[in-house]
Protein 1
Amino acid sequence: DLTTVDNDELEKEVVNFYNNFKKNLKANNLNKIEEMIYLREKEIAQSNFYSKEKLKKLSKEFNNYKDIIDILPIENYQLVLSGNGKLAKLISKNYLNERINSSLITIQNLDYNGKPRKAYVFHGLTLHKPKGS
């Protein structure tokens, strides 16, 4: 239960994860990014019974990480807990929309449909801290 963890320490851990993810995006290190989010993506796919077509589309979207032009600074955020205190994420205070609120924002050459255009992509990173870690 993350509500019992020191809030400042938890925030440091979450910010470190986001910054590490950002660093790997900037370096175009897709293998490391995949390693960081593989388990999460696998669990989402399994729990939602994704079809083969949906999995192919997600794989294609993952390859769009190669088309990043810029990454906005992670700033003006707040740490939010959800899932009965089991999940943590950083949301932007600049974009307080339920669907578009991540504090990790990239600018890419392709949108989610693969169309060539300048697109702002909000990376919704929700983290879980396993017991004892």
Protein 2
Amino acid sequence: MSVLGFMRQGFHCAFLYTSCPPVRSVAQYGGMFWRWLFFLLFIALGVAAGLIYGWVINPAQYTDASPALLKEDYRTDYVLMVAETFSSGQDLSVAIDRLEYLESPDPAQAVLEAVDFAERVGYHPDDLLQMRSLLSALQAGSQGGAGASP
């Protein structure tokens, strides 16, 4: 607002008794500053207290959690990690041991379910290839093992 406009407004407010906007003093702005400062300070203290309680005083404790408790998408990721390990080392017994943590009666069935889910969701073709190679190795191992027994 220009000086002339301010003077005109002051003239109207003082002499013509028209309504004028309230004039705030520096002290009133200072009070608002302290309100905002205390508000933000207490928000920060609340966040800090929540983090300290959740991370130090009473953190979450997981006991005896196994991959069998995972949701289907995380189980599929677990099978993918086992398939990646299998593709790097080609050790089927290690892959079977790791798949037993899923507590499925047949490790090949667990891998087949993971492949089906991965196809539905749209996993990368390289990941699907690794899981399928693990599945074929498991099926070949189970067929070979079944044929070798008397």
Protein 3
Amino acid sequence: MRPLADPEEIKATAARILGEYLGADRCAYAEIEADENYLDITCDYTRGATPSIVGRFGVDDLGPEVLRLMRMDLPSVFNDIEAEASAKTDLSAFRRAEIQALVCAPIIKHGHFVARMSVQQKTPRRWLCEEIEIIRIVATRCWESVARARVLRRVREGEERLRRITDATHDALWEINLKTRRLWWSEGARPLFGHGPGDLEIGLEDWYGGIHPEDVDLVRAKFETFMRSGDPDWIDEYRFRRADGSYAYIQDRGRKFFDEGGTPVLVAGAMVDITEHKQDEEAIRKSEENARWQLAYVEAIYATAPVGLCFVDTEQRFLFDECGAEVITADSVSEALEALERFRPDALVSDIAMPNQDGYDLIRQVRSRGPEQGGKIPAVAVTAYASAEDRVRVLSSGFQTHVSKPIDPGELIVTVASLTGHIHF
């Protein structure tokens, strides 16, 4: 009976094989309901014209004496019911079912009457001891097979339910055994990462190994703190490597599960792909930043109107002419220094790359002057070089900030307006 998976098929097969082996007219397996007041016969074996007795009956359907023996875990045996029953025994149920000889074997589990197997004959029959023992063995094996099949069915149903949920949510479910520190992954890992569950490593360190290098230290610290704490729940966001080497943004949630002593034994959770959400957030952020720059650009056009500027070897003065700023220009370091003697601008905008002397030479000489000679003038460097080293050199030489080429007109206007105090962020 082990290859069979359906409980009803197991009961029907057991009844048929036993009935045929014993040459009986009827064989029926009955399950006792939880309150032990009723029993259910869902299938039976019958020979020839013998009627079926499938149905729901009172647990004492064969009389109080049979029930008493059943609850004592003893078989009830009749070789000839009409001859053996006392005068007070009601034989109407036996006669309706055409029963003249009977063996009824109980199954008792944990002190409860849970099932019985009955083998019946329409004519008197002397039951042998070995036949009675076979009936008891088959009854027990049948109950065990049915119980096993129901457990396996619940497991399969649970797995199918889990698969449906995973398919519907596109989540990767996981579980960590805290004793072995081994991971289990659901099939949801396949669409999420391009891996199947069997492709993913099963150690906790392997999970850490899949996290983006920029995120892993923070994730590890937060998760290990969670594991040491009494907190039941954990949540984090990080980037996790896909099979193709790219990274997915993940929102990960987990919950601890405890044994009877209160010790955590499992952590189970789900990983949700939030990459599209993150991309949407970034698009919104850039859109808002662009709107902010556009607004600042408009404000700066008006804010720079009273500003005096000195441009050295740049072609951007027309931007500030349009804003109404007072602008002077110089084509070299010497011209710029002469201009600063005559004019006290609010800011200096200088290209770094110039013939003979460059922008660094200019700012060095400007900063050597006293405040009354313009030595403290705010200065912006314009340069085609934008490496980290170039930025450090620009700032350390005396410029307050720099704008990289090719120049964004809005960026330059906003930078000058901010530097001169005409606009604030």
Protein 4
Amino acid sequence: MNALDQRVRVVLVDDFPPVVQRMRRVLEAAGVDVVAVFHDGSTAIEAVAEIKPDVVVLDVSMPGTSGIDVLKSIRSSRLRCRVVMLTADPDPEIRNQCFALGADAFLRKDKDFERVPSWILAETPDPNAPAGA
């Protein structure tokens, strides 16, 4: 993204506030505009449709409406945004399910956290570049 472009607009969805706070700091330090934060999937589903961000960063596992449920909703509504699934559990079956449902990336909280901004800002990000299965 060059200086003439608008900043990338991101929505963060994670039920654990320390993860959200850390991710927000990392993204904003990289010049990414965090436009909204949600701690549950059901609220995120409604808001993402209204906000229409460039990227949604979703925690895979949340109580109630999961990140996978939010992903399904985003893709069924045909919103044009990239979706990054962020997880502490790199289960290959969940990873494959996320990609089958239309996730653009599946990144690990323990290995890829600091690399999320570079993935978001990449012109054509490789969904597997920063993530290990």
